[in-house]
Write a structure and sequence with these properties.
The chain has 117 residues and is mainly α. It has 2 domains: 1-54; 64-103. 87% of the residues lie in helices and 0% in strands. The chain contains 5 helices and no strands. The protein has helices spanning 3-51, 53-56, 64-67, 69-102, 106-116. The mean pLDDT is 86.
């Protein structure tokens, strides 16, 4: 084989090698960019969680022996009143849903349309 044939073969092999390295480098760059974006999202989430740590912390109530009977009784009454208010609100919501099931607002409209035809 002539010397110039070997030269062409080796030039093509070297160019192919550099092309492959460039392609692999580009893929690595894209993956690295994606990893940086995921890391940025993770740091944002961690930052939001650290801001809410105080809100998520468990509140330990004071001991009844230290506070005294009067304060504990008032706290219990407030708690029972709050529960009663929530119970009444749920009852009213159930009644409103029941009234809509019994007498929906759309039935008179439908009846008027069917009687007109």
């Amino acid at each position: 084989m002539a010397w110039w044939a070997w030269l062409i073969i080796w030039v093509l092999l070297v160019l192919g090698f550099f092309g492959m390295l460039a392609w692999l480098g580009y893929r690595l760059f894209v993956k690295f960019r994606g990893a940086l974006q995921a890391f940025e999202e993770l740091t944002d989430k961690v930052g939001r969680l650290t801001e809410n740590v105080e809100e998520l912390a468990v509140d330990h109530p004071e001991r009844a022996m230290v506070v005294g009977y009067g304060e504990v009784a008032r706290q219990r009454e407030r708690h029972q009143e709050r529960r009663a208010e929530l119970k009444q609100a749920r009852r009213e919501a159930r009644l409103a849903r029941g009234k809509l099931l019994i007498r929906p607002e759309t039935i008179p409209t439908l009846r008027k349309q069917t009687n007109a035809e």
